[in-house]
Amino acid sequence: MTEENYRVLDRDSLPDYLAGIPAVVEVLGEGADLEILEIGDGNLNFVYRVNNASDANRSVIVKQAVPYLRMVGEEWPLSRDRMTYEIRALTLYNEVVPDLVPTIFHADEDMSVLIMQCLSDHIILRLGMIDGVVYPKVATDIGNFMADTLFKTSHWSMGSLERRELMDRFTMNAELCKLTEEFIFTFPYMEHDSNYSNPATDAWAKEHVHTDTQYKLDVLAFKDLFVSKPDALLHADLHSGSLMVNQDESYVIDMEFAYFGPFGFDVGKVISNFLLCCTSHFHRAGGAEYREWLLEQIPVIWNTFESRFLELWKAADDSAMLIDGLLTADEAERLRQEFMTNLLRESAGFAACSMARRTLGIAGVADVRDIEDLDVRSKLEIANLKLSKRLMAERNTLSSIDDMLAIIRDFYSSPVL
Ligand code: ADP
Ligand code: SR1
Ligand code: MG
Q1: Is the distance from the beta carbon of residue 267 to the nearest atom of ligand 1 less than 6 Å?
Q2: Pocket lining: 44 vs ligand 1, CB cutoff 6 Å
Q3: Chain segment 108-157, per-residue pLDDT in tens
Q4: Alpha-carbon gap, residue 197 to 78, rounded angstroms
Q5: Which one of 143, 172, 176, 351 is CB 3.0 to 4.6 Å from 271, fit for a cystine?
Q6: Are 9 and 62 in contact (CB under 8 A)?
């Protein structure tokens, strides 16, 4: 990545830039008039939808990283390296799960630009779920996405040398890992200038989060895992804003945080986003019926993930971890069972961290933060914090996803509002 070849693109400069890229011209049409819309609603980057003015079906998405954190502004510098990692991860995902990620038309590391398939018939899952829309395939798609990407980049699948070579391509996604270390695992559990504020929530957090030694030490144990447990190539920002869906398809986007980390981080984040949305529907129009749908998706996600992961594992050749002849069939079965129980517990802990950071930290979720009535919002926020604390405290009692669901259902059986 060089500085001299970088310039920030905008609606004026995009047409010339795109005209020089044959693969993009092929999609948009030679010499076509272009419509360009800045559609970025994310925290970090600029995203444009570009389409042929006379044929909106001929469209691409242009995503560019700028050298700062977009949600804060230029006063928070952030290296553009993140786009290099997004390009690398999306390239790999296109090999591993091509039906679940956008196709790449062009990638330019010097310009920190990614040009990809425009998902014009799809909506961000978070927005759909806020509106109470049922997506029949999303839970199985996410489960399969996680199983394939996590298993196939892990030491249970890859050989030792090839895995370390792959790890090497993601090790230096350092600034985004640091963002996660701070904004998910540190700042939300203490007084910090960056934190969100809502008076009643602040008061509750002061009493029940900042001074809860066990909870803070538990969160730190998960920060330790995040920092030190390179199980597999994670998406590492797999929330409902990173999924674009419709009734038939689901696509995963926005993999700029990709790095080698613990399996449970992706799984836990996904689960937490269904819970954050579920809590919000105590106020939102979806009500009990939609809450039930959201809760039912959690075992579907987990069971799909688990059965696909185990299917891949049972069919795997020798790996960095296992070679033929090391374990008997019974021993291998026991290993896999214990592994899955640990992964479930790990996922519950990461889900707990994710719920707290989305409640107390700078980067909230629209599910709750967009609710204007501060008292209502605060009640939902406190519910999310209580559920986070319960999941964290009871994670090591879990033997199955049904156990987790039982805790969640018991929690929601007490009044939220
Ligand atoms: P950031 O990295 O800044 O969080 P995202 O990758 O989440 O950016 O993209 C921001 C928004 O741009 C998404 O919420 C979505 O609305 C839109 N978007 C991103 N990628 C695509 C795509 N391939 N097709 C359609 N819309 C997209
Ligand atoms: C400053 S933290 C910004 C957050 O936005 C991204 O989507 C990640 O979730 C990150 O933690
Ligand atoms: Mg992003």
Answers
A1: no
A2: yes
A3: 999 999 999 999 999 999 999 999 999 999 999 999 999 999 999 999 99
A4: 24
A5: 351
A6: yes
Residue 69 CA: nearest ligand 2 atom is 1
325 CA → ligand 3 middle, Å? 43
Strand order in the sheet with 123-124: 123-124, 243-245, 250-252
Q: How many Å apart are CA 37 and CA 10, to the nearest integer?
A: 10
Does 81 contact ligand 1 (Cβ within 6 A)?
no
Q: Which helix (H) or strand (E) holds 338?
A: helix 329-360
> What domains, with CATH codes, occur in the chain?
14-117 (3.30.200.20), 123-412 (3.90.1200.10)
Strand partners, 108: 113
Alpha carbon of 23 to ligand 2 centroid (Å):
31
Evaluate if residue 42 carries a pLDDT over 90.
no
Q: How far apart are CA 324 and CA 277, in angstroms?
A: 45
Strand 55-64 relative to strand 68-69: parallel, antiparallel, unpaired?
A: unpaired
Q: Residues with beta carbon < 5 A to ion ligand 3? A: 42, 44, 254, 256
Tracing tokens 């995963």 back to the chain, one arrives at 252
DSSP character for 55? E
Nearest alpha carbon to residue 27 among 1, 3, 2, 62: 62
**261, containing H or E segment:** strand 259-261
**d(Cα 212, Cα 306) in Å, to the nearest integer?**
33
| 273, 282, 344, 405 from 347: Cα distances, Å | 13, 24, 5, 13
For residue 369, the CA-to-ligand 3 centroid distance in Å is 19
**Cα 49 to averaged position of ligand 1 atoms, centre (Å):** 9
Q: Measure 44 CA to ligand 2 centroid, in angstroms.
A: 8
Helix or strand (DSSP H, E) at 34: strand 34-38
Exposed, middle or buried: residue 196 (CB in 10 Å: 0-12, 13-18, 19+)? middle
pTM attached to this predicted model: 0.98
Q: Which ligand 2 atom is nearest residue 180's CA?
A: 11
Instruction: With a cut of 80, say whether residue 2 has pLDDT above it.
Output: no
